[in-house]
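User: Batch of two.

Assistant: Item 1 of 2:
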Amino acid sequence: MANHKQLVCCLLLLLSLVGSSMAAHSNSSDDLFEWVQQDNRRFLHAVIRVSDLNRTIKFYTEAFGMTLLRRTEIPEEKHSKAVIGYGPEESHFVLELIQIYGVDKLEIGTSFGHFGIASQDVYKMVEEIRAKGGVVTREPGPIQEGGTTIFAFVQDFDGYSFEIIQRPPTPEPLCQIMLSVADLDLAIEFYEKALGMKLLQKYDSPQEQFAIAMMAYGSNLTQTTAVELKYNYNVTEYTTGNGYIQVSISTDNVYKSAAVVKLVSQELGGKITRLPGPFTRIISFLDPGGHKTVLVDNRDFLKEVQKKE
């Protein structure tokens, strides 16, 4: 009888310990998800390959009105790169262009959609782009009949698509990245939980067979950079190509960020491709659709930019 009571007590103690451990894990997870919503994050840069760096720099500066921020030749690694945008890297979302020696043709693929550029005069900007040799794939006009927002689509020489969007003055003229997804609700949840973004807008168009979600860190879509997640009805697979590489985002703590991404990837899908170390404080991972994101330590990023200046 005494042995039976001892066994029951041991089982109750074990269950209590397991329950406490699970509760602690749950609370720890909750704390991490709450922290990621408060983390100091912004879009740093998107990285794309180009076939002719000189030509791309000339077109982006003359047609889009961007500024060349820096350029680096790395012959020992057989590539050149340049950073270009509408303001300093310390405060603006910019593009990093990479030309691999010997690669003169790119496949953009269907997974990456386009970049967005905000303009107060879409008609004027499109004419400037056309005059510099850009291809206008959608003439300027309202989104829908009777609408007031004007937009257009253009392409550069490599086939990268840019949406020119009518916007009021904004601190982030390079305002958008569009990525195609096979499951919109899953992608929204991933970007909310793993990256701490907010859903600012969701739009479904059964007539045109697509739905989109605008994810960002700010609260005003016209004043911040956003990821546009687009779901095309009945499309479940996309090609990645060899053009668009990744987007980089800042964080105050890559180790906590890595813990969050690990939890979310286990729940929703995705894959961590690089964990932070003691000296390389970055984490890279793929979302459930295979799009790559890199989270970079804020202090390390600023030190690196200042060193290159």
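Item 2 of 2:
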Amino acid sequence: MASNTFSLSIATISSPAALFSNTKTSVACQLPHERTLSSSLMATRTSIYKNTSTTRPTSLRNGSRGFTCSASASASSALPSALLFDCDGVLVDTEKDGHRISFNDTFKERELGVTWDVDLYGELLKIGGGKERMTAYFNKTGWPEKAPKSEEERKDFIASLHKRKTELFMVLIEKKLLPLRPGVGKLIDQALDKGVKVAVCSTSNEKAVSAIVSCLLGPERAGKIKIFAGDVVPRKKPDPAIYVLAASTLGVDPSSCVVVEDSAIGLAAAKAAGMKCIITKSGYTADEDFLNADAVFDCIGDPPEEQFDFAFCGSLLEKQYVS
């Protein structure tokens, strides 16, 4: 069995200095031990960053639920031009019990003697894209005996593994064994009801992303959602190419877009594209550094445990704060 020793590091693309405004913003701040300030934002609980070089975002923990970060109609009339979602970890928490299992089943079918355990796969997720993930892993630990020797043949070998992995993953999705994360459908409906463009921007295979959108969000929503996925761009996250393409194709200004991501590489891609970014932590990303995020939550959430709504997304275009 291949070694599970694998470590990675990624460079942060975007600069923290440009991500937070020094302008004073009045918000309701009712977390324990924090000052309470008057505000036109209703039922909002946030932490203010006055020194962004040293202060890190405060995560919203399960024990802090029971309110919704929102903006009253009078507080902000701003609407994002587009609401963009990552797929894996944002729409569905697919990685540990979806993609990882499908990779391992593929390796077993091909008798490669490779297994990615939970911790190892968490490290591999720092690499955007399944084909890129496998290539980096084999380059680091050694290629299986059954793998070809030439670089071109290895590309075809990786592509065939990824194709089979996608087929196995789609079976899981079609059986609806992996549910939508709380609040995803609600937030998409709120955006569509306002006439805001919605898209999914992912490094995953386009067929896999389309299966998630159509099977789990339903055909009516799916017909209104644009998908940008897989090899539609030559460079994967943390490169901003997927978000730059989305903005260009949708005909919107990147600065008027709000992105929902779950990972540090996704955050880096969104910010490098000049977009606002909300983090909804997933199983693998809870401990990642989200200093540059415009807001950080455990999830979107459905009532009565809703953590933010579409009005909050619009308010980010005018103010910057983190719950």
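The chain has a mean pLDDT of 82.
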